[in-house]
Design brief:
Number of strands of chain A: 0
Strand content of chain A: under 5%
Shape of chain A: elongated
Radius of gyration of chain A: 19 Å
Structural class of chain A: mainly alpha
Oligomer: homodimer
Largest interface: A-B, 42 and 39 residues
Order of helices and strands of chain A: HHHHHHHHHH
Distance between the termini of chain A: 65 Å
Largest sheet of chain A: none
Number of helices of chain A: 10
Chain lengths: 186, 186
DNA sequence: CTTGACAAACCGTCCAGACGGTATCTTAAT
DNA sequence: ATTAAGATACCGTCTGGACGGTTTGTCAAG
């Protein structure tokens, strides 16, 4: 007899909501804040409802991972399509995506993923697989020291954004970006 | 009337032991493995004893954080003493320490622990403070885009080592290090 | 009327921390 | 040099709550 029982059923929307809330919670309260109770309640769903969509907690985290890497892949692919130079193409796309994350409000999910990656061993493995797959795919064009360095710098910047540890002003940020671009070409 | 009651008191040693054990546990079992029960038991101390030294769990984690940043500060200071060039001196010391971490097998636990700590929001704030303090201290010499970029790249490399996501061979690693050094000078 | 999409109550486990006690150490007056 | 009087350093037990997960029930759509 509850409200939820009477509202129109929209499982896909609820699923998305759950993922979104899980991401937000882990950002605000750390990985420990992602409990089944908290996520379900914040998403306006019962715990049983959550467990209907994700049979256990790991499935929820995996869902988050899939969601986010999917978006990442699509964004990178999109960027690569507009790059005429083959050497370092993947690296430049990676850079673009990372820099775009700063402005994107949706980027909070990404930050969360990273933190979750660091703490959850299973997701660490999945991330390793993701990196290995892409390294293999672009071994001919993006495995120079310069490309690697550029991507590492992007990761560092990303980390700094997550931790809000550095306060980089815009001109400096653009200067760094130019340098990273140059690195991707050598 | 237990044996432990009769053994010689050595508070400082017990404190160190607790920190050491907490670090080891987080390495072996992840952040979730650091429970008061586990730490106290592995350190041969009762839970009450642990809570005498650290009044709550956060205090224990803070103790770990202090321990680690203390070591980090000393290592950086040491490196800076041997660098005659003022511009980018802090950055180069930072690079040296990060690269040293990778080669030092003992320090591996250090990395995982750091990650565990960073997943805790409160400690994230403390880390931010640490970074801000050092940025302030070396604002004259280490705030160029090149220095920042070099440090970000070091962070990225460090992250990759933790996640074991990239498999970088030694020549490439050295090539990157040389580039990062050059960045610290511009 | 079957099945998918939830709700709600409940269970076993684990964990942080409180609590009351005991043994050792320190200090300072004798 | 003793020793009484705290202060400090622990010990061992208990509890309340949180958390992951299960089970059972309910509604609604096809």
């Amino acid at each position: 007899m509850s409200i939820a029982h009477h509202r129109r059923k929209q499982p896909e929307l609820v699923r998305q909501q759950l993922l979104e809330v899980a991401a937000r919670l882990s950002l605000e309260q750390g990985a420990a804040g992602v409990t089944l109770d908290a996520v379900s309640q914040a998403a306006g769903v019962s715990k049983g409802g959550l467990l209907h969509h994700f049979p256990n907690k790991m499935a929820l985290l995996n869902g988050l991972f899939d969601d986010l890497t999917g978006k990442l892949d699509r964004a990178i692919e999109e960027e690569m399509r507009n790059d005429p130079i083959s050497h370092g193409r993947f690296t430049r796309a990676y850079l673009s995506v990372v820099f775009a994350l700063e402005e994107d409000v949706d980027a909070q999910g990404w930050q969360v993923l990273t933190v979750a990656l660091l703490s959850e061993p299973q997701l660490r493995d999945r991330w390793r697989l993701w990196v290995a797959d892409h390294a293999d795919e672009f071994v001919g064009t993006d495995s120079s020291a310069g490309c690697l360095l550029a991507r590492f710098a992007a990761d560092g910047l990303w980390l700094a954004d997550i931790l809000k540890s550095h306060d980089v002003n815009q001109p400096t940020r653009q200067a760094m970006r130019a340098q990273m671009l140059a690195l991707s070409l050598q």
